[in-house]
Amino acid sequence: MRGKRVVIVGAGFAGLEAAKRLGRTEARVVVIDQRNHHLFQPLLYQVGTALLATSEIAWPIRHLLRRHRNVQTLLGTVVGIDKAARRVQLEDGTSFPYDYLVLATGARHAYFGHDGWERFAPGLKTLEDATTIRRRILTAFELAEREPHGQMREKLLTFAIVGGGPTGVELAGTIAELAHHTLPGDFRAFDPRKAAVVLIEAGPRVLPSFREGLSAYAKRALERLGVEVRTGAAVTEVDADGVTLGSERIEAATVIWAAGVQASPAADWLGAPKDRAGRANVEPDLSVPGHPEIFVIGDTAMILSDGKAVPGVAPAAKQQGRHVAEIIRGRLDGDNQVHRFHYRDQGSLATIGRRAAIADFGWIRLKGGLAWWLWGIAHIFFLIGVRNRVAVALSWLWIHTSGSRGARLITQRDPDHPEP
Amino acid sequence: MRGKRVVIVGAGFAGLEAAKRLGRTEARVVVIDQRNHHLFQPLLYQVGTALLATSEIAWPIRHLLRRHRNVQTLLGTVVGIDKAARRVQLEDGTSFPYDYLVLATGARHAYFGHDGWERFAPGLKTLEDATTIRRRILTAFELAEREPHGQMREKLLTFAIVGGGPTGVELAGTIAELAHHTLPGDFRAFDPRKAAVVLIEAGPRVLPSFREGLSAYAKRALERLGVEVRTGAAVTEVDADGVTLGSERIEAATVIWAAGVQASPAADWLGAPKDRAGRANVEPDLSVPGHPEIFVIGDTAMILSDGKAVPGVAPAAKQQGRHVAEIIRGRLDGDNQVHRFHYRDQGSLATIGRRAAIADFGWIRLKGGLAWWLWGIAHIFFLIGVRNRVAVALSWLWIHTSGSRGARLITQRDPDHPEP
Fold first, then answer.
1. CA-to-CA distance for B258 and B174, rounded, in angstroms?
2. Order of strands across the sheet with A356-360?
3. What is the ipTM of this complex?
4. Nearest by CB to A63, which of B69, B72, B186?
5. Interface test with A, best of B32, B55, B78 (most A CBs within 10 A)
6. Helix/strand/coil for B399
7. Geometric angle at alpha carbon B204, from B201 and B209, rounded to 5°
8. Which of A36, A76, A398 sits opposite B410 (nearest CB)?
9. To the nearest 10°, the Cα dihedral for B377, B382, B387, B390?
10. CA-CA distances (angstroms) from residue B160 to A281, B168, B196, B229, B420?
């Protein structure tokens, strides 16, 4: 079994965990990602709102795996799988052989058939998405300082966030904080506290994966921060000037999309069955039907555990990465049994803003300041790399003591958006 | 004199200093910049080589000026000056009136008539330049890991830096350190220590603004770091595959330009006389001939002090900003005398790499470790903003104790360069 080739595509939470667990084995492991960095996605919204710098939540994949001498990291874009030849095909025409294949290619945001909305309402999945959103938010305030017409300025100072899940709530809360706590004093022509932040959710409540009491608390906390929460409001149109909700119109220069995700096309590469969100339907051991040597994990996989769909969250992705690594290690040692994946729900945490968060661990539910501290400590604890932890802890300390933000940079040009 | 309008274009070292010195006066000051951030350019090469993050050396201009209630910051691109109407014209068609105008628009890198070389050999003046260079350097190593052919891999692992001034020396030294100290252990297919860093200088020695002894030390220090120093070597061609030096060819996937600067077009806006580098020839008080109400300062101005051209360095820019601010304050109080600008040379510092730098204060010259510590302390001291200082100090401490770098991120796509 020595020298078996394991190819892992994608180095998010799932793929990276699988790679680490296969480190120091006799397998030859190749990790292929189209980025050179692993991204700590749960804090991406803080880059989008100028709280953290890009380098505080991203880390070179090869550096994270450097101690595992049997693991090689490659920068490359996978475009297909040849299941018969057992080869992974890359964009540049090259291909890599595998004995075991782990697909952990994640998800992108989805516009439910309205792909044309993307240029007006960027989503938040990559570092570039985050700097795009940061640029648009900061540019809107900059343009407002130069805008003589009241109505136009009002539009520039309106921020519409579509989607009331954790990302939408976090974005709305931190944009409101930016306007109310960070920016006042920096502008002469208007008061940033006049900015309107509107959170739009089609369903009846925000953070619908939490219990109703916690959802209601989140709504009140958002409103206290100055966010206008619109539930039961479905977006029917998005354009350069705002969003339409049926017969109602919200004029907003900045629209951010946090409403849906679509899995990467791994299921299509495999010709495997998938659900509506594009996730591959996998066997109970996370393998692809008919192909015990191919596994799909993380946000790209659709799997039930205890009769419920496993959610697309970091702990689930890590558990899946660990699970397939252990299956593959077993196979290398001659164990060909099927090991079912079982999701261990460690509880849910969501933050709303300054000293407001909610937590549900099943046996206990928390809200407010205590949940917020817990959220902060948990996120710092799970950040990869000693220095990132220290850097983020210091950034947060700085932000909360000084009120200023460390990464208020408008960088790169934006072809889809007006600029000075 | 109350309510006179002062417009400052550009918030680099010169413009920002002028704005601060005019803060808390009765003048109405408007600072216009096409970026939202002031950039600490002396450390830009450290962003280009993944030592520092972008947000560690850049700071929102309006935040730096927030306490000066008479100063307004505007994001905008100036495209012309109407001297007769005394108005500054912006790209979007709007214009701003002035009683006094300060042009501090800086310089860009220059290709001596070979503008086509820019796409193959980016220069280093903006944050985007720095992330472009960082992306190219890191991508070259990434591609080398996938490259099966020895000759191609050698080309990928060759880094040519054109220009032996401070920026070229700093870039060459830190790229060599990256290859020799940071990256070994992270790659499987090759040894990063095999990378070739070539510093190309047309003149007879590197750091020509320093005395010969210090230049010679810098050359030896570079060679100790593994840099190949080529003096007396003029570049005759730059393309996607490398550089040509007369009859010699250096195959290099990464070429960086640090060879020349060209002033921004402020002299053209004014129809004023300029030198070969495009700098406006100004009066001894930094005003434009025939226009005592218009000043040109910093890298955009050509002025003699003690018979020598004032160099394009940060201390000179700051002194000029302070000088014109004092002239304008005097005018507001009815003082119309001409005050000559006199440059106070506080000495020169240049760093080569890990514990190697040179310093010349006239009365004393230093080289080696002591000069390096002095360089580091001086740069941290001059960094704007308490947190940036702390952040940079911690980053450096981390880099020098752990050997890893904090900002090894490949972000954004590069239309001018091959990528995986």
1. 14
2. A348-353, A356-360, A365-368
3. 0.91
4. B186
5. B55
6. helix
7. 85
8. A36
9. 0
10. 50, 10, 8, 10, 21
Q: Cα separation of B86 and B73, whole Å?
A: 19
**A408 and B35 in contact by Cβ < 8 A?**
no
Question: Which positions 21-40 of B are in contact with A (Cβ < 8 Å)?
Answer: 34-37
The catalytic residue positions of B are: 170
The whole-angstrom separation of Cα B126 and Cα B206 is 24
Q: Are strands A348-353 and A308-309 parallel, antiparallel or unpaired?
A: unpaired
- φ, ψ (nearest 5 deg) of residue B12: -80, -160
Q: Give the confidence band of B414 by pLDDT, cuts at 50, 70, 90.
A: low
B365-369 contact pairs (CB < 8 A, 24+) = B365/B211, B365/B213, B365/B214, B367/B214, B367/B217, B368/B217, B368/B221
Contacts of B249 (CB under 8 A, 6+ apart): B242, B243
Q: Give A103's strand partners.
A: A9, A296
Which residues does residue B295 pair with via DSSP β-bridges, in sequence order?
B102, B287
Q: Report pTM.
A: 0.93
Q: Which of A97, A71, A75, A69 is nearest to A84 (CA)?
A: A97
Number of H helices, E strands in chain B: 11, 27
Helix (H) or strand (E) holding A397: helix A386-402
- Judged by DSSP in three states, A348 sits in strand
State the nearest Cα–Cα gap between B93 and chain A, in angstroms: 11
Cα A197 from Cα A176, distance rounded (Å): 6
The span from the CA of B322 to the CA of B319, in Å, is 5
Contact A186 B56 (CB under 8 A): no
Query: Is residue B187 within 8 Å of residue B147, measured between CB atoms?
Result: no
**Which positions ≥6 away from A151 have C-beta within 8 Å?**
none
Q: Min CA distance, B325 vs chain A (Å)? A: 21
Residue A278 sits at the vertex; the CA angle it makes with A273 and A282, to the nearest 5 degrees, is 45
**Ranges in chain A, pLDDT < 70:** 1-2, 386, 406, 412-420
| Interchain CB contact of A397 with B (< 8 Å) | no
Contact B409/A146, CB-based, under 8 Å?
no
Residue B348 to residue B299: CA distance in whole angstroms: 17
The set of residues, in sequence order, having a beta carbon less than 8 Å from that of A385 and lying 6+ positions away, is: A59, A64
Distance from CA of B113 to the nearest CA of A (A): 26
The Cβ of residue B247 has, within 10 Å, a number of other Cβ atoms equal to: 6
CB contact under 8 A, B189 and A77: no
Sequence-distant (≥ 6) Cβ neighbours of residue A92 within 8 angstroms:
A76, B420
Q: pLDDT of B87-137, one tens digit each?
A: 999 999 999 999 999 999 999 989 988 999 999 999 999 999 999 999 999
Q: What's the CA gap between A364 and A40, in Å, rounded?
A: 26
Helix axes B386-402, B369-382, angle to 10 degrees: 150
- Token reading at B369: 């470790």
Is residue A142 within 8 angstroms of chain B, CB to CB? Answer: yes
Active site (catalytic) residues of A: 170
DSSP H/E element including A266:
helix A266-270
Secondary structure of residue B165 in the 3-state scheme: coil
Kindly identify which residue of chain A lies nearest to residue B58, measuring between CA atoms: A409
| Per-residue pLDDT tens digits for B164-204 | 999 999 999 999 999 999 999 999 999 999 999 999 999 99
Pairing assessment for the beta strands B58-60 and B37-39 based on DSSP bridges = antiparallel
Q: Cα A272 vs. chain centroid, distance in angstroms?
A: 25
CA–CA dist A125, B347 (Å, integer): 48
* C-alpha to C-alpha distance for B205 and A377, rounded to whole angstroms: 54
C-alpha B23/C-alpha B75 separation (Å) is 19
Note the pLDDT of residue B419.
45
